[in-house]
Structure formats: C-alpha cells, structure tokens
Design a protein that fits this description.
alpha+beta, Uridine Diphospho-n-acetylenolpyruvylglucosamine Reductase, domain 2, Uridine Diphospho-n-acetylenolpyruvylglucosamine Reductase, domain 3, five-stranded antiparallel sheet, four-stranded mixed sheet, binds flavin-adenine dinucleotide, binds uridine-diphosphate-2(N-acetylglucosaminyl) butyric acid
C-alpha cells in the first residue's frame, strides 16, 4: 500500500508509482529506456487509480512490449497491464468459450487450449505478448488470425470511466488492423477478451511449411502436433527476443494494385505473392532482401539474417537508430520497386 499526498488529505492507493523506471526488460527490442512514471494495474479499480494519477500526462498501455519501438525515454506514465484470469464462461458439445484477462500471456492461453485438445488457436502458438494486445492488431500467423476465434472484448473507456463491450464487427478487424489502432486509438484500455475454441477442431495446415514439418516430425495432424510444428517453424526462422532483441515483423506485407503488380511480376516472375481483397499482397521480407538488407549489421543492430522483415538489436542500439534504419529500408524498397512499406511496430 502506498499513500499519495493530495493536498491536505492522504488517499490510500492500491497502486505504486515508480519514477524513472527501467523498461529494458519490458520491451522485446531490449532497448535501454526509462519511463518517467510507471505503474502496474490488475483490475478496473487499480486502472482507475493509475489513470487518475496520470492525468494530464502522456500515457502508454504496455502489455509484453513485443510490438513497440521506444525511440526515447517515455515522458509520461507507462501503465503495465496485469489483469489476469482464464475463465470458462460457456461450453456445449462442440465449443468452449473462455474469457481471458488482458494481462495473460498469449502463448499461455494457446497452451491451455492445446492441452485440452480444443482447436482454433494452435496456428498462433508462440506469438509473444499479452492477450489484451492481440486484438489491437488482430494478430495472425500460419493462415489464422485473432478474429477467427474472437467473440468479444471488454475495454475501459478512458474519458467516461465506463467499461464497454465490443463485438467482432465493432472491432473492425483487418490485416494487422483494428478499430483500436485507427479511429479509437488511445481511447480504450482492453481489459479482457472472449474467445471460442472448438471441441471438434478443423485443423488448418494450408501453410505448406506446417505439412512439411508434420512430416519431419512423423506426426498425424492434431491440435497438439500442429501447435508443435508451428513452434518448431517459428524457432527456426525468428530470433528469440531473449537472445536477440526484435519485435517480429517490423513492416506489414504491402498490398498493391494490379498495374504495379503486373510491372513487378514481369521483371521478377518468382516473386512470392498472395491474392488480397484490394489487390495483390507481396512479401515485404522478399522485397527487403532483394534490396540487399538481409543480414545487414550496422554495428550492434540491423536486419536478421534469416528473415529480412525482422529488424534486430544485437547489442546496445538505440530506438532512434533502429527507426532511422526502418526509414532507409522504406526508401530503398520504394526506390527499387515503387512499393510503400508501412510499419507494423508501434513507434513510441
Ligand atoms: P505491446 O507491445 O505491449 O503493445 C502493442 C500496442 O498495443 C501498443 O500500442 C500498446 O499501447 C497497445 N496495447 C497493449 N495492450 C493494450 C491493452 N490492454 N489495451 C489497449 N492497448 C494496448 N504478431 C503477429 O501478429 N504475428 C506473429 O506471428 C508475430 N510474431 C512475432 C514474433 C516475435 C519474435 C515478436 C517479438 C513479435 C511478434 N509479433 C507477431 C508481434 C507481437 O507479438 C504482437 O503484436 C503482440 O500482440 C503484441 O503484444 P504485447 O502485449 O507485447 O503488446
Ligand atoms: N521471404 C524472403 N526473404 C526473407 C523473408 C521472407 O524471400 O528474408 C519470403 C519467403 O521465402 C516467403 C515469403 O517471403 O516466400 C513470406 O515469408 P514468411 O512465410 O516467413 O512470412 P512473412 O510474410 O515474412 C508473415 C507475418 C508473420 C507471421 C508469418 C507466418 C506479417 C507482416 N508477418 O511473415 O507475423 O508469423 O507470416 O504466418 O504479416 C509479425 O506480424 O510480427 C509476424 C512475425
């Protein structure tokens, strides 16, 4: 219990506010930055207290810090989400619904469902971060996205102090997009998500790499084996943030129109591409590799040598240097292919 002096009255508070708090262990780039003020909240009451104490200052809601790039110390209050709990709220013969605290670790939720043999989340095994951040950018991997099992979420409206519910439609999910990244940006703190998983799962092994990995493992397709295959594929491609700082894909895969696509594919018939509702989706990793960036080391930071879409902090880089590198990459892809890359990572 910490007491805060508000004029003449001492108000008991359930939160602790730390000053100049180190964030290196709380962002997967491992950047050595500090928050001017830092506090953890674990329910609506402590969130309200934290927001009240942060009034008038810039605020950042932090989950696992696996999709942020800090370009400097944070001159405001970082509010770390620690709302916990996985509650089974419904089940019948075919499905189970779980309401999950936003501060739960995403991969722990996936493992919980996989251990029960419930299907739906297995392709998204090992994505870092918290459950509350998962709808922010509609996380996805290996042909499956958050929206596919999503039912609803509860979020705290900072301005009114009310808790609002959002259905799937109201979240306006898109490729690495949701309403919370666009028109409601900065207005809500997600408190919980509700997902529906299946007792009679239809497995999605449409990504060729999963089928191949199952073969290598000599395993039949089950919820457990698909999860294991995805974990193995991810470990072979993506750097482990505990070893090399990174935030996964730094850019989104760009979607381009037919005219530009036809121009590029004529010159590069082997270029990977996928159909998309608004045109053609390209692989940003391929474009960046073609521009010569893959494996680039600029002295402690650079581009991963197995996945050009991942920028890495190999030592003591600053967020500013990594941001400047991302600018250079955007410029060179635009120059060589005429394609605009958009950052996936949130710049703070
Ligand atoms: P943070 O980085 O803490 O926050 C991200 C953003 O969401 C920030 O703007 C933050 O303010 C906001 N936010 C966080 N929590 C809340 C909340 N409760 N309420 C309101 N706003 C909030 N992503 C994929 O989609 N697919 C992948 O395959 C994938 N692979 C990855 C692999 C690696 C190695 C790494 C490091 C990252 C990867 N990512 C991937 C990105 C990342 O894991 C996801 O974006 C994840 O959902 C981020 O969760 P987090 O809790 O760390 O969010
Ligand atoms: N490629 C290259 N060079 C590279 C990297 C990739 O040529 O350096 C080519 C690959 O050969 C392949 C294509 O690009 O033909 C796609 O590569 P990959 O399958 O590795 O997937 P990705 O498009 O790079 C996306 C997501 C990942 C997700 C994987 C698996 C985005 C921005 N990234 O990566 O998500 O895990 O697919 O589904 O959509 C993340 O969002 O942080 C993330 C890691």
């Amino acid at each position: 219990m910490v007491e805060r002096n508000r004029g003449l009255i001492f108000v008991p508070m359930s939160i602790t506010i730390d000053r100049h708090y180190p964030l290196q262990a709380l962002n997967t780039f491992g950047l050595d930055v500090r928050a001017e003020r830092f506090c953890r909240f674990h329910d609506v009451e402590s969130l309200k207290e934290a927001l009240e104490a942060a009034q008038g200052l810039p605020k950042l809601i932090l989950g696992g810090g696996s999709n942020v790039l800090f370009t400097s110390d944070f001159q405001g209050t970082v509010l770390k989400n620690e709302v916990k709990g996985i509650t089974q709220i419904y089940q019948d013969g075919s499905c189970v619904r779980l309401e999950v605290g936003a501060g739960e670790v995403w991969h722990d939720l996936v493992l919980h469902t996989v251990e029960h043999g419930w299907g739906g989340l297995e392709n998204m095994s090992l994505i870092p971060g918290s459950c509350g951040a998962a709808p922010m950018q509609n996380i996805g991997a290996y042909g499956v996205e958050m929206k596919d099992t999503f039912l609803k979420l509860k979020a705290y409206h900072i301005q009114s102090g009310e808790v609002h519910e959002f259905t799937k439609e109201q979240c306006e999910f898109g490729y690495r997009e949701s309403v919370f990244k666009r028109k409601l940006k900065g207005q809500y703190v997600i408190l919980s998500i509700t997902v529906q998983v299946s007792k009679d799962p239809i497995l999605n092994t449409s990504y060729g790499a999963i089928e191949k990995e199952l073969e290598v493992m000599g395993a039949k397709s089950t919820v457990q084996s698909v999860s294991e295959a995805v974990i193995r594929i991810r470990q072979s491609k993506l750097p482990d943030p505990a070893v090399i700082g990174n935030a996964g894909s730094f850019f989104k895969n760009p979607v381009i129109d037919a005219t530009l696509f036809n121009e590029i594919i004529q010159a590069h018939p082997d270029m990977p591409h996928y159909p998309a509702p608004e045109g053609h989706k390209l692989a940003a990793g391929w474009l960046i590799e073609q521009c010569g960036w893959k494996g680039k080391d600029l002295g402690g930071y650079g581009v991963h040598d197995r996945q050009a879409l991942v920028l890495v902090n190999r030592g003591q880089a600053t967020g500013k240097a990594i941001y400047a590198l991302s600018e250079e990459i955007i410029r060179s892809v635009k120059g060589q292919f005429g394609v605009d890359l958009e950052r996936e990572v949130n710049i703070v």
